[in-house]
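testing teh design pipeline on a random one, pls ignore if ur not involved
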């Protein structure tokens, strides 16, 4: 009798776990009732004929996060699980994670500096209101473009300001001027100077990285000539706040950098919370360079990007 039960329970387990038969199909196959099949499957588990192992990739996130934290000397690494290694899917998950972290950490009196772009827009859309006092929100770089391509610059700073019950402080300028002389003249305006200074004073900065690939947002906005784009693609790997850097995180074109309006990268690296939100294979080089440059002390990314950075 015991041998028969053992044989039946193993057969039932094989059909159920290996061949995806339903319990009713197994009952028909073995000539027993469906409740008997349920008891046979339970018996197979109790006797150790079946061992169920669930592989949850999210359980490895803490390990990956700690390795990233150590490798790049970061204060905090927040990893989220993305079911697909695709840019839009990754952006959806990391932006939500970043919004939750920002909501949890912003306190009364914080000054929050924000940039723009599609990742930042996704973060802003996920933000939830928080009852805080005396918070200020400021743009960290110019947000005006002559292109029809949407940067979401004004919308992003407005959304941040709205959830923290404050007024948005804009930099109503192009992010890159045609000449250093014009850029310096504009920065002499006391209103513009006060906003740039507020950006320097911000203790929280939220930003992403851009790339130097042909479809890069800044290239599509029409700021650069073809020769300038070639220079940036040849010597750079990405940008933060429209400051372009090479694979070691160093500014790759002083001429372009000197025409750029907004926070300087050394000032960004001094923030109490410099939060880099970025992920996806197309941004790996730029993220790694940004971390080498020490421009962020908090990283929000996904498990695929984390694995690539560790390699």
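output:
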């Amino acid at each position: 009798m015991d041998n028969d039960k053992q044989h039946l329970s193993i057969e039932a387990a094989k059909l159920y776990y290996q061949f995806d038969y339903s319990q009713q199909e197994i009952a028909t196959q073995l000539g027993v009732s469906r409740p008997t099949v349920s008891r046979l499957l339970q018996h197979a588990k109790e006797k150790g004929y079946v061992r169920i192992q669930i592989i949850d990739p999210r359980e490895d996130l803490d390990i990956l996060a700690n390795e990233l934290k150590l490798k790049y000397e970061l204060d905090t690494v927040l990893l989220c699980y993305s079911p697909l290694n695709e840019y839009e899917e990754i952006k959806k998950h990391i932006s939500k994670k970043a919004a939750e972290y920002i909501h949890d950490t912003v306190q009364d009196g914080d000054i929050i500096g924000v940039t723009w772009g599609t990742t930042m827009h996704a973060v802003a859309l996920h933000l939830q209101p928080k009852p805080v006092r005396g918070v200020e929100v400021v743009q960290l770089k110019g947000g005006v473009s002559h292109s029809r391509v949407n940067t979401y610059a004004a919308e992003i700073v407005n959304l941040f300001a709205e959830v923290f019950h404050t007024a948005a402080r804009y930099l109503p300028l192009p992010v890159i001027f045609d000449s250093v002389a014009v850029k310096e003249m504009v920065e002499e305006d006391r209103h513009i100077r006060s906003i740039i200074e507020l950006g320097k004073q911000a203790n929280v900065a939220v930003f992403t990285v851009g790339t130097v690939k042909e479809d890069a947002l800044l290239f599509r906005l029409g700021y650069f000539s073809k020769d300038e784009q070639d220079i940036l693609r040849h010597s750079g790997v990405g940008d933060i706040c429209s400051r372009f850097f090479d694979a070691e995180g160093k500014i790759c074109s002083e001429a372009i950098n000197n025409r750029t309006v907004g926070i300087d990268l050394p000032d960004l690296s001094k923030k109490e919370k410099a939060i880099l939100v970025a992920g996806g294979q197309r941004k790996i080089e730029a993220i790694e360079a940004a971390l080498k440059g020490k421009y962020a002390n908090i990283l929000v990314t996904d498990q695929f990007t984390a694995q690539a950075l560790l390699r």
